[in-house]
Every structure is written in C-alpha cells, then in structure tokens.
Design brief:
With 224 residues, the chain is mostly helical. 76% of the residues lie in helices and 0% in strands. It is globular and about 50 Å long.
Length: 224
C-alpha cells in the first residue's frame, strides 16, 4: 500500500511538473556560465562600447561598416568563451524583423538602406547580448546608479532610475515569452495567419505584467 502511494505521488508530481509553467525563452538578462575575459571587464567599459557602436552606426549609415562591427562583436564573443547557442535564439528573432525591414526598403526605398538598418540592428543586438551574457543584473544596477548619480542634484533618484533599467531588461525576456505563447495558442486554434490572435493576447498580458509589477513595487514601498 505504501509503495503504491509513493508511486502515485511520484506520478502526480511528475504530471504537475510537466503541466506547470514552462520557462520562457531568455533573450537578454541570462549570464553565461563560462566566464571569460568579458566577464572580468568593467560594466561601464562595456556600456561605453555599446554607446560608441550606436554613434558610429548613426553617423556613417554604411552597411559595410555596420555588418563589420557585428562580425567583430561575434568574434569577440567567441574569444570570451561564449558559444553559438548563446546567440542563435536572439539572432533568429532579430532576423525575422530584419527580413521584413529589408523587404520593405527594397520595394519602397533601396536595398542599401535595408542592409544598413539590418547591420545596425544586428550590431546593437550583439553588443547588448555581450553585455547581458557577461554582466549580472546587480553589476548593471550598480553601474547605472553611478552613471545617473549626477541627476541627484536635479531631484531625481538614481536608485529608482537604476531599478527601472533592470526591470526593462527583465521585461524584454518576459514579453518575448508572451509573444511565443500567443503564437503557439493561435496555431493550436488554427489561426496561423491571424495577426490579431497572435498580438492582442500578448499585449493584454504585457499590460497585466506591468500592472502586477507596479503593484508589487508599491506594496513594498520601493516607489512612491
């Protein structure tokens, strides 16, 4: 009797774990467990490099330069002991957007403009990946707090600004997971071609996530 009870308990436990909430894909905010030289680099330096990449991309607007920056960032990631599986999922999501942009630019503008936008997005996404894969949220919080500390003299709260930035990083992964769940639900109902069935549920759940986050912060007295 007891062995049967334990067997039934293990079965129910396994069923609950399989039927439970599945982990959402993490596009950003998940640190790689293979520490390399980028892990030891100061977060402020990495943020400065990201800002420089954005400035270069906006000033030159050249597809060769932008895609070259992306290639260099990929190589840097590999030298820092990061692996292709750290990047592939985010590359796929970005590629979908880039294909749409390039197609629109090709029909309504020029192919060069589309390739420029694509290179800019991929370079910035790769730079952000290198930052979040090699920097913990706590390190980012400390760095953001230092960066915005001069705003204290204007009446702003550096801690609140840093917290907002960290919540934004986490929200990217959460919302991407909501989009994936809405897409799978639409396919299960045979609504593969319905944009409304894919987007509206994700928007509503994103709003609920924002409201729940706000209530949690307010209940803890973190923000006024």
């Amino acid at each position: 009797m007891s062995s049967r009870f334990r067997s039934d308990s293990r079965f129910r436990s396994g069923s609950r774990s399989r039927a439970g909430i599945q982990p959402r894909p993490q596009l950003f905010g998940k640190v790689a467990h293979t520490p390399g030289w980028l892990h030891r680099t100061a977060p402020g330096v990495k943020l400065a490099v990201i800002a420089l990449i954005g400035v270069v991309a906006l000033i030159f607007r050249d597809p060769v330069i932008n895609w070259s920056m992306f290639a260099v960032l990929v190589i840097l990631g590999f030298t820092a002991r990061l692996r292709p599986h750290h990047f592939l999922k985010t590359w796929i999501y970005a590629a979908v957007l880039i294909i749409i942009v390039v197609a629109m630019q090709y029909f309504f503008g020029s192919l060069r403009a589309g390739l420029t936008v694509g290179g800019t997005v991929f370079a910035c996404v790769q730079a952000a990946l290198l930052l979040t894969l090699t920097t913990t949220v706590a390190q980012l919080l400390d760095t953001f707090t230092v960066i915005v500390s001069p705003l204290r003299f204007l009446g702003a709260s550096p801690d609140t600004i840093a917290l907002t930035a960290s919540l934004m990083v986490r929200a990217i992964s959460h919302i991407s997971g909501l989009l994936g769940e809405a897409d799978r639900a639409a396919r299960a109902r045979g609504l593969d071609s319905s944009i409304k069935a894919r987007v509206v549920p994700a928007i509503l759940r994103s709003v609920k996530y924002a409201q729940d986050t706000g209530r949690a912060l307010d209940a803890r007295g973190i923000v006024d």
